[in-house]
Amino acid sequence: MRLVKVILLSVAAIIVLCGAAFVVAGLLIPAERSFTNEVEINAPAEAVWAVVNDRDKYTEWQANLTRVDVVDDKNWVEYPKDSPEPLRFSQVTDQRPRRMEFNYSMGNSFGGKWRGEVSPTANGTKLRTEDSYSTQSWLTKILIYTFFDMDKFAKDWNGRLKQRAESLNR
Q: What CATH number should be reported for the domain whose range is 31-169?
């Protein structure tokens, strides 16, 4: 009988500790995060923006997408692999050749903004991107922080954009 009590108390203590860890993580992990990255692209700004705006071809250079549904010239939906929901995008600003901005959301619990600005370089273009997002729920905040590296994702996306723009510029 004593062994059963010890096991039950141990299980209860583990459950309380896990609950406390969840609450602490929910309080400490920021709901909003932002990442800035830069990449040199050996192509003119027009080529960079052409790749960004050719949403029908995103799956050709973004391996993490299964498909893209273009709604109209300012709205589209991306279906990432291993994602419970699609990402909905809307273009907010198009001030080519200098900059562009998109808003995006996944359901009601996650949303963000992407901003890209270009400047000329000796060999082409420097693209500076800022990705920022916010979450509405503790669970989403914890899951994104634990399983998704937004900064790495943004750097990888910029790298694939660079490869695509340079390959089309040859």
A: 3.30.530.20
Closest Cα partner for 127 from 89, 92, 88, 166? 166
Backbone phi and psi for residue 64, each to the nearest 5 degrees, phi listed first: -85, 0
Tally the residues of the chain.
170
Strands in 32-41's sheet, in edge-to-edge order, are 32-41, 124-135, 110-121, 99-106, 87-95, 75-80, 65-72
Q: What is the pLDDT of residues 9-58, one digit of tens each?
A: 888 888 888 777 777 766 777 778 899 999 999 999 999 999 999 999 99
What are the domain boundaries of the chain? 1-30, 31-169
Q: Where are the beta strands (DSSP E) in the chain?
A: 32-41, 65-72, 75-80, 87-95, 99-106, 110-121, 124-135
1/14 Cα distance (integer angstroms): 20
User: Taking the model in full, what pTM does it have?
Assistant: 0.82
Question: What pLDDT digit, counting tens, does each position of 54-94 carry?
Answer: 999 999 999 989 999 999 999 999 999 988 889 999 999 99
Residue 99 in 3-state DSSP?
strand
Distance CA 38, CA 23 (A): 36
